[in-house]
Amino acid sequence: MSYSQLAFTTPPDAPGWQRWLVFSPLARLVFFTALVWLFIVIGDRLIGWSGWYAPHAPALRRAVCEVVYRALPALFAYLLLTRLIEQRRADELALRRLPAYLIAGIVGGALLFSAVYGVLWLLGSYQIIGTNPHADWLPALLTAGVGAGVGEEIITRGALFRIVEEGLGTWWALAISAIFFGGAHMFNPDVTLWSIAAIGIEAGLMFGMLYHVTRSLWPCIGLHLAWNFTQGTVFGVAVSGTRPDGWLVSAHSGPDWLSGGTFGAEASVIALLACSLLTASLLVIALRRGSIVPPFWRRHRRDQVALAQR
To answer: What share of the chain in percent tops pLDDT 90?
Structure first.
């Protein structure tokens, strides 16, 4: 079985010390993490020098700073990782795939979230009580959309899922990246153990499978962006505990496990079911393709058997 879908494999002629200290999954994750923190520190200094993130600065300026914090450190670190260590072009961020994949992700995310709140509306758990045509949508698009979509997807799917999959295989990569993604929201407002678990299961597994099937970060970024923006700015619902400023003014009723409560739709069992259906569909595609990657020791054993049979 070929595993050519993997973005990187250790060069066969690499000496032993490079295999462990440079090319191993752990070494690359450490290198990436160090670069992210370095660029965060640099961005913090630049933003502090500019004064754009002052307490009374305009919302749009603060939103631009949020993008610098959330998206650019991860993007720069990832591009350096792929170029300097893996010595390849980051095809998962290839610009030629951006238009189709990003648009598909945005449309899919908007439809998925609309379906969730359509069901909640039919169940009487979501009510529209007014409109707010003056909602400040652009800062929300930059922070919850672009900043979170680009930064979180590069870190969790581009680096963590992809590199763990190369070492431990697809199943472990899904589990580890989902746990990390859920845990990354543990300090959000109104968080609960249920909301952390729900995000890990519904979004962590879904985004991981979406990357696995497409081998591109653009649909993951688009879906993530659209989910957050549609939730907060269109439907006026809290985004992972963050208060919304939406075009629709809404209220929720019923138990929190159904409505999501003050945390937002990520903590709703309806969102959990909808995302799990999409995850299951992507898993069926992966299984039919035979693209599930086994751990490296099983791949090595198969290669040895194949060589012995020649």
So the answer is: 82
